[in-house]
Design a protein that fits this description.
By secondary structure, the chain is α/β, with parallel strands linked by helices. It is 42% helix and 14% strand.
């Protein structure tokens, strides 16, 4: 076991594109060594090369949050290469029930429900369990779970919520579960220096291919924000000072009601 750098080490899942890539970029610009974790083995090195071209220190690892063997292998690789992990950002996720005609909870297929929870809840849980021993070796570990205000039970329950037009029950329920996991892990680690928080990046139109029906629905909730803005809150939580919060849910660096 060797530690090859004196800088902080950050691993971001789903970091080969979109918000995850921008989180990696912003952390790298702070002098942090970033590890791009990608589901497809060839896409991590491609993203790493783009970051390196900007003068950032970046590495890649193959990690599919739905495949336990890749999570285990990734943790072993990080241990061999760095000996610890300072920042873990659980960014990988999917909205598997985005459809033009909203599907109500009573109509959702169980296969869709299981897929949503496998990616958005069980995946982050497995990653936390695998990497927590390495995070415990950090003098100030940080865990950030990328969630969504659509998973806020407060907002789901409000008849006048600006997010009311969005009906993606399994995405929303899995993000609610992820928020609960955030609070529970923060509670477990309360007596340590590790901070655990959830972040909503806001609606970020990263690929430019949003269908009109979805853009119209999201317009009522404030429309899209630039990817740089979407990455800001996760990066802030990943680099919190000693007196920063733990066990919270934030959007635009402000608390969101559970």
């Amino acid at each position: 076991m060797t530690t090859s750098t004196n800088s902080k080490i950050a691993l971001i899942t789903g970091a080969n594109r979109g918000i995850g890539f921008e989180i990696a970029r912003q952390l790298g610009r702070q002098g942090i060594t970033v590890i791009v974790a990608a589901r497809h083995p060839e896409r991590g090195p491609e993203a790493t090369a783009r970051l390196a071209a900007e003068g950032l220190t970046a590495h890649s690892v193959h990690l599919d949050v739905t495949r336990a063997e890749t999570i285990k292998a990734a943790a072993e690789q990080v241990e061999r290469q760095f000996g610890r992990l300072d920042i873990l950002v659980n960014n990988a996720g999917a909205a598997v029930d985005w459809t033009p005609q909203p599907t109500q909870p009573s109509q959702v297929g169980l296969d869709v429900a299981r897929q949503a929870f496998e990616i958005n809840f069980f995946g982050p849980l497995a990653v936390i369990q695998a990497f927590l021993p390495l995070i415990r070796r950090s003098p100030a570990g940080r865990i950030v779970n990328v969630s969504s205000t659509l998973g806020s039970i407060t907002e789901i329950s409000r008849p006048d919520s600006p997010f009311g037009a969005m009906v993606m029950p399994m995405y929303q329920a899995s993000k609610s579960a992820l928020n609960s996991l955030t609070a529970l892990v923060a509670k477990e680690l309360r007596e340590t220096s590790i901070k655990v928080n959830s972040a909503c990046p806001g609606w970020v139109d990263t690929d430019g291919g949003v269908p009109p029906w979805l853009r119209a629905a999201l317009g009522g909730a404030g429309g899209a924000v630039p990817v740089e803005q979407g990455a800001d809150t996760p990066v802030w939580l990943a680099t919190l000072s000693e007196d920063g919060p733990s066990g919270g849910f934030f959007n635009s660096r402000k608390p969101v009601a559970w």
